[in-house]
Write a structure and sequence with these properties.
The complex is a heterodimer of chains A (about 325) and B (about 190). Chain A has about 325 residues and is α+β, with helices and mostly antiparallel strands. Chain A is built from 9 helices and 12 strands. In chain A, strand 3 and strand 4 form a beta hairpin. In chain A, helix 5 packs parallel to helix 6 and helix 7 runs antiparallel to helix 8. Chain B is mainly beta and about 190 residues long. Classes of the chains: A alpha+beta (about 325), B mainly beta (about 190). Chains A and B meet through helix 6 of A and strand 3 and strand 5 of B.
Chain lengths: ~325, ~190
């Protein structure tokens, strides 16, 4: 994007799209009010940070120069503390921050809608996510298709993502012209490459497509279902090739959660990434008891892009970072 | 040696890939909901002009290409190479046929050209967007003759051939858009 000093005071979104944002927020708040899901606020600035090696937190310094904390990449940990404290169903609409993410569908500061349903699993939550999207886009007849991660790769690429070798995946990527011989990735990295480069654009072409049941290595904070072939009870929603939402049947086991944090930190260490402090309050809340629940985070800027036929996230933001 | 991180990628950035200098034409950041982020770029090989797609792991670094553009005056061709001069330092440089490429069709002595230097050596030459050249040969073109879409080929003093309207005659000066190789207008002397 070219920046011109004469015009960069102006918003990059039209006022029509900014009003559409306001209307969307009003509809969402009404939706949750009618369903007795109450709105909460949790800190944007926290002492601990996410450990996921693929997420980079902004670090905040005090005016006096000392380290202060991190801007959150999602409100997941403090919202689960509220759930453990007995909140019941809650939602939050907030800005989240992810360093190094900038593109047509990425902006380092973006708006997230996150909500949790005690007593539900991810299947029930997928139905509610579909209802939210139908409402947001004012398309009550929008269809839903669910496909497992394994079926998706098997049907489109004749590949079993659980057992495929790195060489097999590299060969498919090279044939598709999306990888050079020099590209070095681990097992999940190759799956991510195939998903984003070979599969994503076709997802949700005719309606909403939920991908569910992810490999346990990509569980993030999802519960793992101990089937014959274990799967993570995680889903992602795609519409018009755009990834809109990520949800889980939430992991409630504090020991398992701690082990995943430690594995993340080991990976961060191997990649020479910063090693942020683990959220001890969150682990203590899990140990005290998180109710069985499902939760989901939905990107509001992308939802607004779809609602207003925008192809670039800047078209739905008042002021993108280059002119913030 | 300078390096760029993928987070610095943007259109126009010059990078080295497999020993050749490339220009980033388009950079797209892609990332699944959770997991590995990638920079998917379209890059143009500055030696061959070919455009290809490449994917990088976000966070990887790539060697910077020492490539920059400079305006130079074309002096003459010695039969093998094209000689250029920096109008400020009067420093002279020679460019070979692959570097001059299509520009050879359009440039004549004293034209200002955009010369792309790689490690200080001319890699590509862009002629001015518009040049004025004399027609050395074209059919008289009979009045009312509309064959050939209302135009006729004309050979210019540099050897280039462009289509011109029927009324344009040998020895006249014409203005040509070198980016598309098309006649623009007649120039009165």
């Amino acid at each position: 994007m070219t920046i011109s000093a004469a015009t960069d005071w102006q918003p990059s979104a039209t006022l029509v799209r900014l009003r559409a944002r306001a209307a969307l927020l009003a509809r969402l708040r009404q939706f949750f009010a009618e369903r007795d899901v109450w709105e909460v606020e949790t800190p944007l600035l926290s002492a601990a940070a996410v450990t996921d090696p693929a997420l980079a937190s902004f670090t905040v310094h005090r005016a006096s120069g000392g380290h202060c904390g991190y801007l959150h990449t999602s409100p997941e940990f403090p919202m689960k503390r509220l759930l453990a404290a007995g909140s019941g169903a809650i939602y939050q609409i907030c800005k989240v921050f992810r360093d190094d993410e900038r593109g047509r569908r990425h902006h380092p500061e973006f708006s997230l809608l996150e909500w949790y349903r005690p007593g539900w699993d991810y299947r029930q939550l997928m139905d509610e996510v579909a209802a939210v999207v139908r409402l947001a886009l004012e398309q009550p007849a929008l269809t839903v298709e669910k496909i497992s991660y394994r079926e998706l790769f098997w049907e489109r690429l004749a590949l079993d993502p659980w057992t495929a070798s790195v060489d097999q995946m590299r060969a498919i990527a090279q044939t598709a012209g999306v990888a050079t011989a020099q590209l070095e990735l681990d097992h999940d990295g190759w799956l991510d490459l195939l998903l984003t480069h070979c599969l994503e654009t076709d997802l949700g072409r005719n309606g909403m497509t939920f991908i569910c049941d992810y490999p346990p290595s990509q569980a993030a904070l999802a519960r793992i279902r101990p089937d014959a072939v274990p799967v993570a009870e995680r889903f992602e929603l795609y519409l018009q090739g755009i990834e809109l939402a990520n949800g889980f049947t939430e992991l409630g086991d504090a020991g398992e959660q701690r082990a995943r944090f430690e594995a993340d930190l080991a990976e961060r260490h191997a990649q020479q990434l910063p090693l942020p402090p683990v959220d001890a309050h969150f682990l203590a809340a899990l140990a005290a008891g998180l109710p069985n629940c499902a939760g989901v985070a939905l990107g509001l800027d992308r939802l607004l892009m779809l609602a207003t036929s925008a192809t670039d996230i800047d078209a739905v933001l008042a002021f993108p970072i280059e002119r913030a | 040696m300078a390096f760029y991180s993928t987070s610095e990628f943007k259109g126009g950035l010059k990078i080295m890939l497999d020993g050749d200098p490339y220009n980033i034409v388009e950079n797209e950041f892609v990332k699944p909901g959770k997991g590995q982020a990638f920079n998917r770029v379209r890059v143009r090989n500055l030696k061959t002009g070919r455009t290809v797609e490449k994917t990088f792991k976000s966070g990887d670094t790539v060697e910077a290409a020492d490539v920059h553009d400079t305006d130079m005056q074309y002096l003459y061709n010695d039969g093998e190479e094209w000689h250029f001069m920096d109008p400020e330092s009067f420093e002279q440089m020679t460019a070979n046929a692959p570097a001059v490429g299509e520009a050879a069709k359009w440039i004549k002595d004293n034209d200002m050209c955009r010369v792309t230097l790689w490690n200080g050596v001319p890699l590509a030459v862009d002629p001015p967007n518009f040049v004025v050249l004399r027609i050395v040969e074209t059919d008289p073109g009979l009045k009312g003759d509309t064959s050939g879409g209302g135009g006729k080929p004309a050979t210019l003093e540099t050897g280039a051939v462009v289509r011109v309207p029927l009324f344009v005659q040998t020895d006249e000066l014409i203005k040509v858009d070198t980016r598309i190789g098309e006649y623009v207008s007649r120039i009165k002397e």
